Amino acid sequence: MLVVRALTELDLKGVMLSIGNFVGVHRGHRELLGRMRELGRRHGAPTVVVTFFPPARVVFGNATYLSSEREKLDLLAAFEPTAVVMIPFSREYARTDKAVFVDQLRRLAPHTIVVGQDFRFGHERAGNLNDLSPIATRLEAFGLVTHEGEVVKSSRVREHLEKGDVERANALLGAPYRATGAVVHGEKRGRDIGYPTANVATGERKALPPGVFAVTTTTPLGTFGGMAAVGSKPMFPDEPPTLEVNLFGFDGDLYGREVTVFFHAFIREQQRFAGLDELRAALARDEAEARAALDRLAP
Questions:
Q1: Are residues 181 and 146 part of one domain?
Q2: Distances (CA, A) of 8 to 15, 104, 127, 222
Q3: How far apart are CA 200 and CA 208, in angstroms?
Q4: Global pTM?
Q5: Based on the domain organization, do 207 and 136 belong to the same domain?
Q6: Range of the domain at 273
Q7: Among 91, 184, 227, 267, which residue has the fewest nearby CB atoms (within 10 Å)?
Q8: 135 and 225 in one domain?
Q9: 119 three-state secondary structure
Q10: What is the number of domains present in the chain?
Q11: Is residue 262 situated within a structural domain?
Q12: CA-CA distances (angstroms) from residue 34 to 30, 84, 100, 172?
């Protein structure tokens, strides 16, 4: 999968093209991307995903993002695109005239453009599907998707995560929510009480669900079940929020190495304990619940 930062870096013609922000790559996005892949296979044509990072709401406000650039690329890779154009989005880029974007797409001579029916682009979001239709043989516009009676939108996924409801967020995403980052040194308190943790550094604007969760974590040394604590530490309130993961059955060194944490089930909210003995007992209960939750997910 070729990854470039601008449409002008691609030398492809007759492509099957999917365009969107793909924030979180949820079930609605998966329908678009799946259709792009199907068309590419059917016609033996190259497939191209055009997307943007960071999201506009992050650039212009205080919003969090569901997927980092790395996480988004990993999610998009599952649809086997020939190339991904990951356009750096900024206040300056937001002033790009819609005609400039359309002209850059035209160079790819798109056979089919697959896009959400509400897709807008260009300065002040002036561009729409009517601007895209003339440059492709065919344009396919997808409407909103519903799942179990709920409209699938990135904003809804974020709302569920803010409440710690990873099960519902995962249902809309169509896959477990993930957080990728390097393991960094922490205070090593977990090691002293029998529950060593990997402290995972995510971007400051990464959306993380608060609480304690059953997780699986992929590492360079294998994939492990475990439990993760996310948020501020009630026992140590002056320290910044963290993502800490206890990996079941792991005995090794991950410092400086990248891992991906997949959230599966909520166990409890973060809480303050009277002392380390009470904390240790709570962690033992958390481990039992996390193992049970992961066993229920096993095929």
A1: no
A2: 14, 7, 19, 39
A3: 12
A4: 0.92
A5: no
A6: 176-297
A7: 91
A8: no
A9: coil
A10: 2
A11: yes
A12: 6, 15, 28, 16
Are 180 and 133 members of one domain? Answer: no
Tell me what the pLDDT averaged over the chain comes to: 92
| pLDDT score of 224 more than 60 | yes
Reported as a single tens digit per residue, the pLDDT across 154-170 is 999 999 999 999 999 99
DSSP-derived letter for residue 111 is S
Q: Which two tokens stand for residue 129?
A: 């599907």
Return the closest-CA partner of residue 157 out of 29, 269, 296.
Answer: 29
- The one-letter code for the residue type at 97 is D
Cβ–Cβ under 8 Å, residues 180 and 263: no
Give the model confidence (pLDDT) of 32-77 as tens digits.
999 999 999 999 999 999 999 999 999 998 889 999 999 999 999 9
Tell which of 135, 150, 165 closes a domain.
Answer: 150
State whether 125 and 26 are in the same domain.
Answer: yes
Contact between 72 and 58 (Cβ < 8 Å) = no
Residue 166 within any structural domain of the chain: no
Strand pairing class (242-247; 150-151):
unpaired
117 and 9, same domain (yes or no): yes
In a 13 Å sphere around the CA of 74, the CA atoms on its Cβ side amount to 15
